[in-house]
Protein 1
Amino acid sequence: MNRLPRAFILLCLVALALPFAAPLAAGSSPKRQAPAPQASPTPVRDEKLWRRALALQKRAIVVDGHNDIPTIMADEDYDIGVSSVGKYHTDIARLKQGGMTGEFFSIYVDRQYATPEWVAKNYTTQGGSARRALDLIDVSYRMIEKYPQDLMLATSTADIRRAKKEGKVGVLMGIEGGHAIENSLPALREFYRLGVRYMTLTHNNTNEWADACCDTARHGGLSDFGKEVVAEMNRLGMLVDVSHVSDETMSDVLDVSKAPVICSHSSARVFSNHKRNVPDELLKRIAQNGGVVMVNFYPAFLDEKVRVAGLERDERLKAQHAALREQFKDDPKRLDEESKKLDDANPIPNTTLSMLVDHIEHIAKVAGIDHVGLGSDFDGVPNLPEGIRDVSDLPNITYELLRRGHSDEEVLKILGGNFMRVFAEAERVAAVERRKISGEGSLRRLK
Ligand SMILES: [Zn+2]
């Protein structure tokens, strides 16, 4: 049994989507729910501009900071070489259509794996957080092995450039949820050796060494051990990802990190007052640090009216969702379906691709054009803005940026150039730092 208990995912997703709802209510869509088919975008298209957008997309190094397809590959036995149009956001054909050069496969470790209940009940058969990460890394490797003409493992900027040259999609891996290292610097190093090139310090859950956006603060940001984790990541050349962490943690990381940081999938808080989003003062600090904020496409993170409508719907349907949970408590799959049906019968407004581009422009205005990128969260979110159905629609963003008057050079930076600069700088820091053996941390584990 590899399958995640759905009820648990539901709870986590509600925490992701609606951190201000208390107590947690069911009804928000789960992390891995199939996207609803959406209407085709671009009602009146300037064909000449569209051709320019497609040509630019073809020329660009396009890097996406976050894609959750490995969870689906592992839990649903999904083969990424098989078309999943209308069901998932990602397959090989659409990655290529979207012009993807480097896609970060999310090695997402749910918080449940770190709970004493999980360990007591399941450790013998399913392991813990690190084992879950290993399983997702394995499924990523297996897909790369199965489709060597289309995919290649990418662990460096040089690899990403090689993928571009060879017309392949470079698969990068990023761990989501620092509890995956099970409080061990040796485990962190093993993940680096396997090819993991970023780690999101927390998911929505506070762990033993860092506070999360959407959970109780226990450390006032980053603990001393958390600072050792960051130092070791710098030394290795693993990017420090500050999506999902609390503002205090982000600030602490910016104080201590020797390399530029990334937000692999976060948007601007000014447009949606969600703790997952980055406030202007931290956007400015990330710019000073030389980092990049890769915009998340999730409508509730993009648009305050969607966020609020989601909260209101959850409140309205609270009793009905509670009844479903009771009725299908032994049938998580059915519960998932019925919860989705209930939500679908009570639709909330969506937002648009134009709003997504507003986030890009806002971050470019506050932090600078060199500090913004794309972090879709494909297949980790239940729905996307109008104008983006899946990964194949990335050129629509390029088109909209050009339509708003951005130069080719600016668009190339946003699509991946900025990320490449940050990654190269992290590699440079590591090349200097790695002469030290394991930093000061060496064999440190939390006692
Ligand atoms: Zn996430």
Note: The chain has 18 helices and nine strands.
Protein 2
Amino acid sequence: MWSEPVLAASLLALAVASQAAPAAPPTFARDIAPIVYQNCSVCHHPGETGPFSLLTYEDVKKRAHQIEAVTQSRYMPPWPPQPGYGDFQDERRLTAQQISLIADWVRAGALEGAPSEIPPPPQFTANWQLGPPDLNSRYNLANAFARAGKLDQALEQFRIVAAAYPQSARLQSQFAALLARAGKWPEALAQFDKAIALDPSDETTRKNRDSLIKQMAAR
Ligand code: HEC
């Protein structure tokens, strides 16, 4: 009665063993938490604009299929600078590799992995977190306008948010990218310089600034 499944299982084990070592399935602890913590939790935590938290394995597993869908469609993480607009990069866009890793993880059963391997969830500092609800709404509104290609309205909103957080290198850099996309090049350049002065180690801002200078020179 039981010998057949045992035989089948050992044949399967042989078949697997004879191939190159199979890649271990992706886990939340090793593969997914770093992506989510770096790209999603900033908005998806209590008190922020995201409609639910993405901070724990349970949070993320519960919405695994939805997360797969919104990352495949690049609906999330939201950010205006689109690829192809003068090569402005955004550090918050996921790479194609990260997107397929999420899909692989979901298909392999959204495994947790070793809880001890889960990195600590990010701490949010006032430097980046948009506290006052008014500024949250403006930030979201700016995103929505930019997505709809209404760059003047987007700038109007973002200008207020950027002014409220003069010390946030990230916001200043995002504002610069938006200015560049809207064709306000001299102002964008000054804004990139401001962001770099706040965080000289930010490669994305430097690259965006270089692209802008090339674009200006090509005129
Ligand atoms: C800039 C803030 C921000 C970031 C970063 C962000 N989100 Fe969101 N997310 C939102 C907001 C606001 C909503 C609700 C409004 C909407 O659906 O646009 C939302 C909605 C969602 C939804 C529900 C979509 C639906 O169809 O109802 C999912 C799933 C989601 N986010 C996943 C993610 C994932 C995964 C990441 C990281 C890869 C991420 N988000 C990054 C702000 C953000």
Note: Residues 48 and 133 are 9 Å apart (CA to CA).
